[in-house]
Amino acid sequence: MSGREVLSDAAWRERALAGGVRPRRYGSWYVAEHRIRSMRSYGQTILATSIGNPLIYLFALGIGLATLVDANLGDDAVQGVSYLVFVAPALLGLAAVMVSAEEFTYPIMLGFKWNPIFFGMNAAPITGGQITNGILISVLARMVPTCVIYFIAMVLFGAVPSALGILMIPVAVLAAMSVGLAIMAYTARIEQDKGQMALIMRFGITPMLLFSGTFFPLGQLPVYLQWIGWISPLWHGTELGRVISYGLAEPAWLTAVHVLYPAAIIVVCWRMSQRVFTARLNK
Amino acid sequence: MITASALTKTYKGFAAVDGISFEVAPGESFGLLGPNGAGKSTTMRMVGAVSTRTSGDLAILGLDPDQYGPEIRSQLGVVPQSDNLDMELRVRDNLIVYGRYFGLPRTQVAKRADELLEFAQLADRAKSKVDDLSGGMKRRLTIARALINDPRILLLDEPTTGLDPQARHILWDRLFRLKEQGTTLVLTTHYMDEAEQLCDRLVVVDKGRIMAEGSPAALIREYSSREVLEVRFGSERNEALGEQLAGIGDRVEVLPDRVLIYSSNGEAVLERITELGHEPITSLVRRSSLEDVFLRLTGRTLVE
After folding, report:
1. Which of B48, B62, B76 sits opposite A12 (nearest CB)?
2. What is the pTM of this model?
3. Distance of alpha carbon A43 from its chain centroid, rounded?
4. Closest CA to B203 of B194, B192, B214
C-alpha cells in the first residue's frame, strides 16, 4: 500500500511480462484450487454421498436383487459370475458418472450466469482454456476418491474377484470424464436456463444408466435399443471393467474401442469446451 | 499507461465503441462519463484485456492485449459493474483464491488479504458469508479483491451504482486514498458528482463516441455557465414558459419536469423571471455540473 515508484515505459512492460509467467504456467491449477475450496462448502454432502451411495447400491442390488437372481440362475448367474460381481463394475462407473452429472451441469451455468465467477477469473490473468482445465482437475479430485471409496466397499462386499480389479477405478474415471466433458461442451453454451439441466438428467443420464448393460447384459435388449449402449461411454467403461474384473470374453478390438472411444470424446469435447469458454468470456 | 487510438468494437454490425482515442498517464485518475449504453463498459473490457477489439490500436503498459492478455491483466485490478464474488466462499477466502490467480504465494496472499480487509473496513467480517454482506460491503470487498495483486492500474466500472449515499462516500474515500498513493484509476460512471470527486480528467462518451475531453472544471467552463437556475412551473406549463424565457441568461433548456437557465448569476435571473410576472412552483440556484455539460453536448440527461 506504499506510494508508487516512478518507472520507465520499458520497466512497466518488463514487470507485466514477468507477472504473466506464473499464471500462464500454473493457471489451471489455481482454478482447481479455487473449485476444490468451493467444494468444501458442500463437503459434508460429498462425503455422505461418497460413502452412502456404494452402501445403498451394493445392499440393494448386490445383496437384495442378487439373492433373487442367483437363487433362480445359480452362482454363475450372469456371464459366468454371480450377479454381485457382474453388476459391480457398472455401479462403479455409475457412481463416477453421477459426479460428472453434478459437477459439469449447474456449476458451469453458475460460473457463467448466476454467480459469474468465471468472468472474475478471466479479469485476473486466467484464460478460458485454463478455467476449463481447472474445472476438469477439480472434478477429478472429487471423482477419484469417490471411486476409491466405492471400490473399497465393493471389495468388502466380495464383488471383486481379481486383484487386477483395482484398474476398474481408472476405467470408471475415463468413462465418466468423457460423459462429463460432453456435458460441459454443451452446458458452457447455455445462455438461458430453460430446464436444459433437467433434460440432460432425464433424457441423457437416465436412459444411459438403464440401457448401458448396467443391470443386465446389453444383449438382453432388442437389437434396436442396443445402439444406446454402443454410443454410451458408460457401457464401454462397464464392459471394460468386466473384462478386468472377471475376464469377460470379448474380441481384443472391442476392448481397444472401450478405451479409445471415451478417450476420443474427452479430447474432442475438452477442446470444444475450451473454445466455448474462451469465446464466451470475450464479450 | 494506456493508449487507445480509433478503438472500435462492433457487435453484429452495431458499433458499441466507435473509434475512440484517449491516453491515460501514470498516477492519473481518468473517467469515462456517459449514460447507460454509451460504450463505457465495452471500453473498460477492452482496456481490461478480456474483450478483443474489432479495430484500432490499444496498448496497456506498452503491450497489445490481443497478444499479452494475461501479462497485462497481471498488473490490473478490476472492479466490474456487477460484483462477481464467489458466493460459495467466505469473505477472506474470496481474497485468497483471487490472489492465487496472480501466481502469488499462499503466505503472501494471506498477509495481503488481512491488510486489505482492514483497508476495506471488513476485518470483522472475514469469516462471514459473502451473501450476508450489504451492497456497500460487497462493493468494498470487490475493490479489496481487485487490489490483491497491488495493481498498477485499477479499472472501476460504475463503482458506486446502486449504493446508498453513505456507502458511496466510504467508497470514494477509499478510492481517494488509492489515488493519493499513486494508483492509476480508470473509472466509468454516470454520476457527475462521482466524476467530479474522483477524476483528474475525463471523456464524455455517448453512443460509442467521445463528445468532449478535459478536467471536470475545464469541461464545465467550456460547455456550461457558472451557475444554473432550475425552475419548475408544473409539467403542463414548463414548455410554454421555457419559450417565453428564451433570451434570459446564457441559455434555456426545457426538460419535462423543469426548466434550466444557464447564467453566471442565477439569483439575478430568478429576480428577472419574477419581475416578468412568472411565479415558479420551486426554484433552485446551483453550481453548474458535468450533468449540464452532458446535456449540452448530447441533449439528454445522464441518468434517464
Report:
1. B62
2. 0.90
3. 18
4. B214
